[in-house]
Amino acid sequence: MSAGEGRTVAEFLDDSDGLAREALLDMSADRALGMVRGWPQLMQSAAELWTVLPPDPTILASADPIAILAAMGRAVDRSLTAGHWPGRGPKDEAWEQIASNFVQARRLLQKQPLASEAVSTGGQASPTTANTQILHALYVAAHATVVALGGYERYLQDRLGVGARRRQPLVERPTALEVESAGGMIARFDAIEQLAAGSLAARRSTTANQPSTRRRWADTRLEAAVAAWEIQAYRTLANHPDPTDLVRVARVQALIATTTVVVCEAAARRGEIDAGLIQRLTPALENAQLAWSRSARRWAELTTPASRTDPALVEAAGQLRAGIRAAVANQTGWATPDQIAGRIDLPATVMTLHRSLLAGVELANITREIAADHRSLAAPARLIAMRAQGEAEVAIEQGETRFEGVRWVTPDQLAANQVIPLPEPARRGLINAATDVAAATNQAVAAAAHLRPTEPAPRVGADRARRVGRAATEREIPVRRPNRGGRPR
Amino acid sequence: MALGLLGAAECRLEVGGGFLDHRDDTCDRCWADRQHGVPALGSQRHAVFHRLCAVVPPVVVYGSMSQRRFDLDEHAMDVDTGETLAGVVRLLRQAAVLAWAAADRTGAGSAGQLFALGVDLAGDQARHLIPDGTDIDGPVPVGDEPASLLRSAELLLRRLAPSAASDAVDDLRATVADLVWEANTGVGG
Predict the structure, then answer these.
(1) Among all residues of chain A, which has the CA nearest to that of B92?
(2) How many CB atoms lie within 10 A of CB A135?
């Protein structure tokens, strides 16, 4: 029993939760970089602990939130390994301690003949509450990281402003790129936080009073397909993706955004979610869909006739498409709200799709990194000449002088339309497209952040002014507002 | 299998005792010209030559970001089958291009995305049936409607020799047939 100083599993989990809360109360920008660096290890140990806990009967195995959170943690790790901001360096001690707690709890559980007995302490805990505790610790830790990163971003901006005013040497000032990177990382951790929060809320409502009989076949199918898609998309993008993989990911993400609009509108018409919310959410989701579609078209330019899409990605996309068709489509297009309501549990599906949007933020960031990092990106010379010239002109207009007078393609390459590596300006176009996607998806996530279809809401058109007013006063858009006092409890 | 010339714009394939109408503006004519045993319109019938080619080792394709991670089939594929499937891939990819263009033209919220994604995935499915090293490049199929290109792809798949029709080909055939149905009845049309 004494894998860690004679403590029980529940004590390890309590300690982890406490450490996360303390970090949140600390609100120290100094810890931000260490928190980001320590996150992958923390997340991995949490995922490993999760695997030894007895399965939770209230949660669909394929929709297990920890799998997608673990994939997001690995994505952060890959970014750091690739040298992206903030790069390698010291990790936050509290995060290392939480990771260590999770490791010791796992070892303790593995030694026990019956895991559930080991988790229980004084009749307070059960495997389900252990799962909830892990999720809660992750939620608070992710939120603390967002808060710390927000403080760090402000610190960078202040230094940037002061440096410019005092005409400090450039080497002593933070770069605008660093500020932008911090903002991007905030968005990533915001998505992680919201995913953990959503999973936590779903778990609580499921275990409390939501009858499982309400779940229908199409629901389950769609939820499983969405979860499988997210995980597979991470896997494929982590494993030397071909441009055609990126096209498929972008197209599917665009479809998910559209499906979310359809389901949310149906839910609003049926009075299942706040009608005022839909008015803000729909344009944001449509922007996200269009941004993903533009990104898909850009990546499609890099595909060749011999390109192959990852078969596992194709399979996951096929399942998702089938799930969406079964849930929200009919022979002539999108199904009517009544038809959709007859097929799926609208509030549950809204939450499923909202979680998928969160994963989309991370996928957009990974896409941007692929555009920036993969040295083997190549395309036909004529296309490169056209794209590079266009992007170079844009960059020159923005004050970039490096591209002036540069020829990106030789006449021989042009004549043969040879496949050549992507020059920097053409690569910038892909990066910019991915940045647009990340921003648009992030806005959609922010607009959807308060989708909590747990209480009765009026139908569209009914008492709209009052509801909108309530939304304006009680709800806030959380993106890039790190100091959201007291959200985790 | 017999091919009779019915007119300038239309050919008819006799398959298994029945006839399948086939508009020539949707088929890959250059591909058809190169087929063994499937003469272009007006030409004479040839004997069908089934040749075997061994599958080559993994090939790093220019323009791809990495060596692909597929385990190549160890079985040999009939050259005719390979070329037929390559034609199917080209037809499906062109159909997908048209379907996405239509969906993108509609703007945000288009239900055409579902159909276009289905065509894309069918193209991927077909591509996986062809070993690396098989030349997929070829002329872009003529046609401005996804539905007609899909019908052409379906037609080609039906013409595959029964010996070549593995379960995977059967699955692809069913997928394409579903898409043809979607194109004719739904938003993809």
Answers:
(1) A305
(2) 25
